[in-house]
Amino acid sequence: MAAYEFNAPRLFLDIPMREGTRHTLDRAQANYLLSVLRRAAGEPVLVFNGRDGEWRAEIAPTGRKAADLVLTAQTRPQTPPGDLHYLFAPLKAARLDYVAQKAVEMGASLIQPVVTRRTQGDRIKLDKLHANAIEAAEQCGILALPEIRDAAPLAEAVAGLAPERLLVFCDEDAPVADPVAALRQAAAMHGGPGHGPGNDPLPLAVVIGPEGGFTPEERTLIGDRRNTVRLSLGPRILRADTAAVAVLALVQAVLGDGR
Ligand code: SAM
């Protein structure tokens, strides 16, 4: 196992990872390494494909703006992702990208856009969600890419959650109480904070409403689900993307298992 190179750039490459593999970078990747980061021949790059752990590779320039990477050794074995499903109503494009990146950085193993009565489902561009998830994975150092699902009606997505999965329902109408205590109490009823049976990560899900909020029927649908904890994020009405970051940070801090 090679030593981890903390300040080496990271790239997601969907290629088999073996010692000696030589891979030709596309123009954008070569430009990023050679021109933007101004890396030189022989300098390390960390690469991962989401399946085979992380590998150290060395830059082998093949022209002024072209380069290959030669894989030299694995730096980290593949580790399983956490178990956090992130359900959110589509937002305006720029904020959707932002929310997707923050969800990945804070441990989402699955991203599920949900269509509610007050959102337009056509806002979801899956290829953009994928690209944002990969960019966030490269930046934050995770090895397993999250699963990205196509937009689904809210009722279908909630019904599709496994019964043992604890759903954190961000509800601005929930009583403003201590969210940490509320999360800890809900988790304690489901296998202990951060650990389900057999030290697996506690199966979690988070659901955030759209700019226009959930309808009363949707709130009943979510709130009536057995393993759901309604959580207030404080007395102010947060934008959906602010609420996303707030609740993901809270869940990661209180229940996260560090994956
Ligand atoms: N009902 C809000 C209003 O009256 O403006 C609109 C929804 S808010 C902009 C978007 C979503 O963020 C909500 O559906 C909820 O999931 C979440 N949210 C916002 N503020 C919150 C808070 N204080 N506590 C918990 N969730 C909140």
From TrEMBL:
It is found in: Cytoplasm. GO terms for molecular function: methyltransferase activity. Its EC number is 2.1.1.193. CDD domains: RsmE-like (cd18084). GO terms for biological process: methylation. It catalyses: uridine(1498) in 16S rRNA + S-adenosyl-L-methionine = N(3)-methyluridine(1498) in 16S rRNA + S-adenosyl-L-homocysteine + H(+). Residues 25-71 form the Ribosomal RNA small subunit methyltransferase E PUA-like domain. Keywords: Cytoplasm, Methyltransferase, rRNA processing, S-adenosyl-L-methionine, Transferase. Belongs to the RNA methyltransferase RsmE family. NCBIfam families: PRK11713.3-5, RsmE family RNA methyltransferase. Specifically methylates the N3 position of the uracil ring of uridine 1498 (m3U1498) in 16S rRNA. Acts on the fully assembled 30S ribosomal subunit. This is Ribosomal RNA small subunit methyltransferase E.
